[in-house]
Amino acid sequence: MRPAARIQTTIELLAEVLESSLPMDRVVTNYLRARRFIGSGDRRDINARVYGVIRALCRLDWWTLQAGLEGDSRSQVFAYCLLSEGLKVSDLDAFCDGGQHSPEPLSSFEGEALATLEGFGLDHPDMPPAVLGELPDWLFSLFEQQYGAEQARIEVAGLKGEASIDLRINSLRSKRDEVLEQLVSDGIACEKTSHSPWGLRVEGRTTLGNSRAYREGLVEVQDEGSQMIALLCDARPGMSVIDLCAGAGGKTLALAASMDNDGDLVAMDVDPKRLQRAEPRVSKAGVEIVRYARLDKATLRGFAALGFDRVLVDAPCSGSGTWRRQPDARLHLTRERLDHYRSLQLSVLDQAAPCVKPGGRLIYATCSLLDEENSLQIAAFLKKHPDFSQLDARQIWQSIGGKSCPFDGPAMQLTPAQHGLDGFFCTVLEKKS
Asked: For 224-431, CATH number?
């Protein structure tokens, strides 16, 4: 494709992303899959530019407003080309020749307005902190209330970059050093993660499907912080464990490895289709102890009668800790939706509590950075359930042989700014004997 066609395709794809209620990665995949004539190099360029625009959308809208431009995908992409890629208006003018698959020619007003952006970068000292942080005002205020003004800016800045690709080795089938060696031999550069003994971090971008280790189930894609949640569950061989909101089974697989494929592990979810996606992953990994159950009140009543050693509640949440991977998600979060998540979290905790046997543990986790979904939810739960108490996650980390504890406080809170990982919260509650 010519550069002009790449830019026009970016404009069209960005418009679809902004208009759709679907996650951005699905919109992009569907768009490109329907246009198989687009080559791999073109796809990489278009994909990178679309994601770049979404990561900088608040700042781009600020700039286009200053210039008096329409806040549409055309202006946003042109502004991104000038402010982030260093193009000049003369370059855009050459691309906008009105030919087939090219953008329409620049109007005289567009050219003059865009010229006011030349020589600047994405950031500007006159931008409000929320705009610099790529957040709506109400959401940035939550960060300020929680972290203080200066730290809030640091935390939200950490959400603007790109996340690494982390892998969890399947310890049921291989050792980390062996998998690392095999990946490197397949041309995938990796290094060991700092905290998880199961983790490998991929250097740069690559296609994992080309690796024999990935095809044979020796590794799974899983952020190191997510692996640390599974480690804090301290699930051991012979235990009975529920992964209450299992989804596609990422943490289920990690728990099975921690249990050494010995015990009773139940993967539950309200959506049977998610569990169906988990089944082939479980089979490929050689895990034999997983059974599946739909998350509903009748099933939970039966499990409450049995009592389990560990119940993991990986609760539905805002996903604010994963916005590096899903930069469009912050655009869809509203105050009403956040309140819905908070109500749902308390409901799931209440339903999970009876399934924990005396002396057992309830592990609550989110991929959120917000106290409203994390520590405040635990405080509300403990007030309502005095038969539970909070354990110190730092002591659990030490007891399972973890290296120097990377988090402060009795609960684990990871943030991209402080730890370079996705943002995760995890606390461990024990039911009194």
From this structure: 3.40.50.150
